[in-house]
Amino acid sequence: MARALVGVIGGSGLYEMPGLTDVQEVQVETPFGPTSDPILCGKLQGIPVAFLSRHGRGHRLIPSEVPYRANIHGLRQLGVRYLLSLSAVGSLQEKVRPLDMLIPDQFIDMTHKREGTFFGGGAVAHVSMADPVCSAVADCLARAFASTQAEQPVQLHRGGSYLCIEGPQFSTRAESHWYRSMGASVIGMTNMPEAKLAREAQIAYATLAMATDYDCWHPREQAVTAEVAIANLQQNAARAQLIAAEAIRLLGMEKPDSIAHTALTSGLVTPVETMSQGQLAVIKPLLEPTQSVLEEVEH
Ligand SMILES: CSC[C@H]1O[C@H](OP(=O)(O)O)[C@H](O)[C@@H]1O
Ligand SMILES: Nc1ncnc2[nH]cnc12
Question: Which of 149, 164, 234, 273 shows the greatest Cβ crowding within 10 Å of its Cβ?
C-alpha cells in the first residue's frame, strides 16, 4: 500500500491538490467503511502526501455525513502523522474579515450527530484535548503563509477558537450572537470530531481556516449564503493550496515532534493484550510508532 507522511483534508472548494506527482488513487479499507472519497497519494516536493476531499469530489456529503472515523483511520493506515485541514469558515469577529485566514488554536464542539471516538466496546482511552492543535504544524502553516504572495491583502490571524456546528443549515442570528458571546473567533461545520479523532490517532493536526463571510451577526453585512461563501473561498483556493504545499515541504524537512504523536501513551487505559480481534483492528494502526513511519517514508 502507498505510504504518506503528511495528509491534507481539502474542504469546500478544495477537491484536489495541484502539484501532486506520481498520483495513486487509493481506496483504503477501514473498520468504519469507505473514506469520503478515494485518497490521492503522491509526492509533493519529494514528500509523500495523501490528499482527501472531505465532502468528496463533486461535494456530495453534508458535514454530518462525512465519515470522520473512516477518513482519519484511512489516513493513519497510510502512515500520516501530520494533517492539514483546509476549511471555509464564517467570521465571528469584526477584525477577521472575509478573505482573511486564521489558524485556530482551540475548538468548541457543538455537534451532536457524529461518532466522535475510535474507542468503546471494551477498549478505553481518554486523550488530552487541552491543546487540540499541534503548535508545530500551526507554525509551519504560518511560515508558509508568510512565504506566499497574495493578489489582494489577506491577513493571517494566529489563534482563536473554531466553533463547530452540526449544520448543514447556517446559524440563526440568535445563535450567532450566542457563539460570539462565548468568545469564538470563527464558525464551521466540519473540524469536530475530526480534530478529536486525529488526536486519538496520534496525528498532529492543524487547520488553515479561510473566512468567507460574517455569518449573520454583523449589523451592516449580509447574512451568509452558500453561494457567497463558495465564491469567496474560490478567491483564496489557489493561495491555500500554495500555503499547504509549502507547509508540507517544511513538515517533510523538519519532521517536528508533536504532543499528538504520543497521545495514547498516557491516554490508553485498557491493556492491548486484553483487546478482542475486532478492537485490535481499530486500535493497532493508531499505535504504530512515529519512528517506523519516518524511516519508511524517508526521502
Ligand atoms: C459551503 S460553505 C459551508 C461548508 O464549508 C465548510 O466546510 P469545510 O470545513 O469542509 O470547508 C463548512 O464547515 C461547511 O461544511
Ligand atoms: N457562516 C458559516 N457557518 C458555518 N460554516 C461556514 N462555512 C463558511 N461560512 C460558514
Answer: 164
